[in-house]
Prior knowledge:
Layout: H1 4-21, H2 40-43, H3 53-61, H4 78-96, H5 101-106, E1 110-113, H6 119-124, H7 126-129, H8 134-143, E2 150-155, H9 160-180, E3 189-192, H10 198-206, E4 210-216, E5 227-233, E6 244-250, H11 257-274
Parallel strand pairs: 1-3, 2-3, 2-4
Antiparallel strand pairs: 4-5, 5-6
Helix pairs in contact: 1-4, 9-11
Amino acid sequence: MLDEKLIALITEEVVRQLTASGRVILPDSLSAEPAEGKDPVSTDRLLEDPLDPEALERMKKRTTARIGVGKAGARLKTKTMLALRADHARAQDSVFADVDPEFIKRLGLLSIESQAGDRNTHITRPDLGRKLCPKGVEALLAHCEKNPDVQIYASDGLSSAAIEANLEKILPVLVEGLTAKGLKVGTPFYLRFGRVAAEDQVAEVLGAKVVCVLIGERPGLATAESMSAYIVYNSYVGIPEAKRTVVSNIHKDGLTAVEAGAYITEVIQQILDRKASGVDLVK
């Protein structure tokens, strides 16, 4: 059994992680540490007597990676280990949790599902996540604009946290930017239990020239909120993966959602101009 001191340390670290992420706001009397700036494990000097302390400080300010954390004997220090446990738990939660239906409703998005049907199947059967369920196909045909220049949709993929953290910021930038270029933008929607290649069936069902899926990526210990955009031209079921153009690392500590929206808009315009995506775009 864990002793009381270790339980207290774990509790303190979990509270600090939650308040730092902004997911939970506690009264000052209960908060473990101020939630300002980066994770203290990334910014604190845990390495004793570094050869070049100033260089280490400069590196820490430029990365969220755990560098210069030192060790206690052959093991990580307690503070680092507790932070790793908390980040690992957050990553697991992001994979297994669903995007809040109220969030999707608030954005006014039609919600459909893949053939996976539930979270466990979605994780263990990627092939089913690449196919739309029959009711989903019917919903797209009934409610979405046909033959758009660009069809944008979002999908949980392997990180619900990525969608909740980024979608509301990136979607308006994309839709407004593409519309301003005179392009016909399809009706955005949300695909639950989706994988990247589901966009190929979306292209066939709606007759879209370009499909862009905004999807949650497999979370790591640095962030559980990383989203990517997979863009494909003139797609069809079974298209080679090399035909996709990818914009990755969309999160607050990487390529921010608003910046990504502006950049993806220009990438899509280039894809339409050159009638190619993926490796064909750089030939």
